[in-house]
Amino acid sequence: MSGRHPVAVIIGMMGAGKTRVGREVAQMLRLPFLDADIEIEREVGMSIPDYFAQYGEPAFRRVESELIARTLSDFDGIFALGGGAPMTPAVQDALAGYMDEGGRVIYLQADPKEAMERANRGGGRPMLDGGDANARWMRLYEQRDPVFTALANVHVRTHGSTPQMAARKVMNMIEERVVHVDVAGGDDYNVRIGEGAMNHLAGVLGPGAHRIALIHTQPVQRHSDRARALLRQAGYEVSDIVIPDAEAGKTVTVANGIWERLGREGFTRSDAVVGVGGGAATDLAGFIAATWMRGVHYVNCPTSLLAMVDASTGGKTGINTTGGKNLAGSFYTPAGVLADTTTLASLPNDIFIEGLGEVAKSGFISDPEILRILREHAAELRAFDGASLLGSPLEDVVDELIERTVRVKARHVSADLKEAGLREFLNYGHTMGHAIEKIEHFRWRHGNAVAVGMVYAAELASILGIIDDDLVVEHRTLLDSLGLPTSWNGGSYEDVLALMHRDKKARGNRLRFVVLDAIGHPIHLDDPPADAVEEAFRRIAG
Ligand SMILES: NC(=O)c1ccc[n+]([C@@H]2O[C@H](COP(=O)([O-])OP(=O)(O)OC[C@H]3O[C@@H](n4cnc5c(N)ncnc54)[C@H](O)[C@@H]3O)[C@@H](O)[C@H]2O)c1
Ligand SMILES: Nc1ncnc2c1ncn2[C@@H]1O[C@H](COP(=O)(O)OP(=O)(O)O)[C@@H](O)[C@H]1O
Ligand SMILES: O=C(O)C1=C[C@@H](OP(=O)(O)O)[C@@H](O)[C@H](O)C1
């Protein structure tokens, strides 16, 4: 956004807490605060009830919309609007323009009973004058709630929250990181990263859907419970679908069970799927969405680091077959990805570390800053303990790594959704990695196999004189410091070679690798000499 614009604009019913909570948010973020009503009173030199009494509501709305238009382009703090302001068409247009430029309009959704009581308490609200104030408030609520819901791009429920708690929720939404993914010939979408990102569920799904298939695994039950509550509050009918954990969920038998159930429960083409869990759950959820009635909307809520940085974004959906992993599926992009980092609180250490394999990969192929952050914080990352993550200094580091890695992924998939060229670079370390996974019967975790695969690719590039040995050492040292494996000797060269020939990048009888010729600069390596391929294997055998 160019020029000065509010960090956030808060809208909501009278008594929702726009002024009280908005002020608190501004204090927490050390930003200035402006309340439209207070500014109007200052400008017209009288109280709002007096202005209403003397000039009437239409005149008030004119003053109000002019002040709002001005403030939207000349203020860089937290801006709270008066309750009725967003009902004025000129204000709606101004807010739409502000959001187009990346602005946040936050609908502070208080419990109607609580807000109504609070609005009646202090007086000074002319819209409630002249009869039963509660009935008036309720009538306004019925008119305004649907408009506010549709208008805002951030929704924060404050039911039963103290002003401080509500402010913290708002602050989390403001501090959220958003990565935009362009989809050539399709609908763009956002990856939202941060505490409370899941609160966007209803906003991303929109009003079109009636039923939601909520697909998740048992270990993330408490996170899917939250998703279900958010969906129900928003008025959706939710079918809770628990699938077997990890790879056991990515089968045609599981998919078939879900198709049967969607049929029985009357899911239509306008209904939607939400996937909550690790990469296996989001891959399966995406596959169901891609195939049900030839494609319905879906939203991914990844809960593992690997799913947040990699699996949930990019539109590769699929299941495994007896022939191998991910052999059946389709490219089908989600309507949005909500990487709610509060879910990391329950993530086991080894699953977190595995995810760092893909983070490091993104650093090697595209973003040296990722490598710097990993190096600087290796010890803390290696000691990851979800229970103490939230609110700790490490949380910021993890959020930064997630955002940067998603940006790398977004750049590659935006340019090449169907993996015709650039997207293949995301496969750095995967040619050997996939072979290891297969030989290990998928008991080796993906990110760990990719770590060894990157060392293999670096060794290969070094043998061929494409990179110096220093860069190979850099691979080994970094991955090792994060607790990732750098060697493997679980199978024969012949088996590995045969599997690498079946890699998706291979062409005809020729092997095809991704290697680096420098950090941040991946290249394709076609048909390398057989002795180099074997020598690199010898070097990772450890
Ligand atoms: N679609 C893609 O582009 C893409 C990219 C990379 C990987 N993948 C796929 O992703 C899968 C690997 O993903 P993964 O590493 O997340 O594995 P996973 O889905 O098997 O999850 C690992 C384990 O962690 C548990 N878990 C996840 N989040 C948790 C949380 N917050 N708290 C407690 N437990 C939690 C899961 O239930 C599971 O037991 C593979 O199937 C792989 O093929 C897909
Ligand atoms: N979450 C909350 N819990 C308790 N009291 C609140 C809360 N939010 C606001 N209040 C109080 O309710 C009253 C109305 O809040 P205010 O911020 O003026 O609402 P608005 O600006 O949305 O009309 C104030 O006295 C405020 O201190
Ligand atoms: O709802 C409304 O139409 C109004 C709400 C008030 O703001 P609060 O919501 O801050 O009370 C104030 O702008 C004016 O009384 C009109």
UniProtKB/TrEMBL annotation:
EC numbers for this chain: 2.7.1.71, 4.2.3.4
Binding residues for ATP: G15, A16, G17, K18, T19, R20, R125
Residues engaged in binding Zn(2+): E358, H430, H446
Residue sites binding NAD(+) per the record: 245-250, 279-283, 303-304, 316, 325
SUPFAM superfamilies xrefs: Dehydroquinate synthase-like, P-loop containing nucleoside triphosphate hydrolases
3-dehydroquinate synthase N-terminal domain mapped to chain residues: 241-352
Annotated binding of Mg(2+), by residue: T19
A Pfam short name: DHQS_C
Compartment(s) of residence: Cytoplasm
Cofactor: NAD(+); Co(2+); Zn(2+); Mg(2+)
GO-annotated biological processes: amino acid biosynthetic process; aromatic amino acid family biosynthetic process; chorismate biosynthetic process
Chain ranges of the 3-dehydroquinate synthase C-terminal domain: 355-506
Keywords tagged on the record: Amino-acid biosynthesis, Aromatic amino acid biosynthesis, ATP-binding, Cobalt, Cytoplasm, Kinase, Lyase, Magnesium, Metal-binding, Multifunctional enzyme, NAD, Nucleotide-binding, Transferase, Zinc
Record-listed substrate binding positions: D37, R61, G83, R144
Chief location bin: cytoplasm
A molecular function GO annotation: shikimate kinase activity
Cofactor note: Binds 1 divalent metal cation per subunit. Can use either Co(2+) or Zn(2+). Binds 1 Mg(2+) ion per subunit.
Pathway noted in the entry: Metabolic intermediate biosynthesis; chorismate biosynthesis; chorismate from D-erythrose 4-phosphate and phosphoenolpyruvate: step 5/7; Metabolic intermediate biosynthesis; chorismate biosynthesis; chorismate from D-erythrose 4-phosphate and phosphoenolpyruvate: step 2/7
Family that this chain belongs to: Belongs to the sugar phosphate cyclases superfamily. Dehydroquinate synthase family. Belongs to the shikimate kinase family.
Role, per record: Catalyzes the specific phosphorylation of the 3-hydroxyl group of shikimic acid using ATP as a cosubstrate.
Protein name per its UniProtKB record: Multifunctional fusion protein
UniProt source species: Bifidobacterium samirii
Lineage: Bacteria, Bacillati, Actinomycetota, Actinomycetes, Bifidobacteriales
Gene name as annotated: aroB
